[in-house]
Amino acid sequence: MNKKLIKENNKLIAEFMGYKQFVYTNPWNNQKEIYYHKTNKEKEVLEQYAENYPWMRNAGEKTILRELNYHSDWNILMGVVEKIENMGYSPRIERVENGNHFCWIWNNKKPDDNPDVAEYSDKKIEAVYNSVIKFIKN
After folding, report:
1. What would the pLDDT profile of 76-113 be if each residue is shown by its tens digit?
2. Within a domain: 18
3. DSSP-assigned letters across all residues of 79-115
4. What is the rounded distance in angstroms from the CA atom of residue 5 to the CA atom of residue 50?
5. Same domain, residue pair 81 and 31
6. What is the rounded average pLDDT for all residues in the chain?
7. Is there a domain that residue 100 lies in?
């Protein structure tokens, strides 16, 4: 998967998780910095950060995200899986004989045995990540 697609998919997941984007232009190098926040308080922290850069970094807010690493960080990816479970779906991750990993997501309200999403990869995190992306897009 190329970097541009990973970036787009990670942004899609962040939005699914309730994050909003805050774009800030660094006055020292004119580079755009992108942060993700959930609450108005966090947005205020980011606005303060923008006014006081570079003296204020993240201000202790743990849910402000600077980088989106859903594709490589199990800790934040599993938070997405838990949200999907809380929506009434059952994700299942399994390794099969050939070494591939499968991730299925079923709707618990459907009577049939067919999953809504089925993805596989030789890497477990990639199978789960791709399933989550497909689930969100459907």
Report:
1. 999 999 999 999 999 999 998 888 999 999 998 887 77
2. yes
3. HHHHHHHHTTEEEEEEE-TTS-EEEEEEETT--SS--
4. 28
5. no
6. 84
7. yes
The first and second tokens of residue 39, run together, are 């609450």
Query: CA-to-CA distance for 36 and 14, rounded, in angstroms?
Result: 8
Residue-number span of the structural domain to which 115 is assigned: 74-137
Instruction: Supply the angle between the helices 124-137 and 3-16 in degrees, to the nearest 10.
Output: 60
Look up residue 138 and give its two tokens.
């459907």
Q: Among 135, 34, 45, which Cα is nearest to 92's? A: 135
Number of independent structural domains in the chain: 2
The two three-digit tokens of residue 40, written as one number: 């108005």
Question: Which helix (DSSP H) or strand (DSSP E) does residue 11 occupy?
Answer: helix 3-16
d(CA 120, CA 127): 5
Sequence-distant (≥ 6) Cβ neighbours of residue 12 within 8 angstroms: 133, 136, 137
Whether this model's pTM surpasses 0.85: no
Q: Indicate the burial class of 33 (C-beta count within 10 angstroms; 0-12, 13-18, 19 or more).
A: middle
Q: What is the pLDDT of residues 30-43, one digit of tens each?
A: 877 777 888 888 78
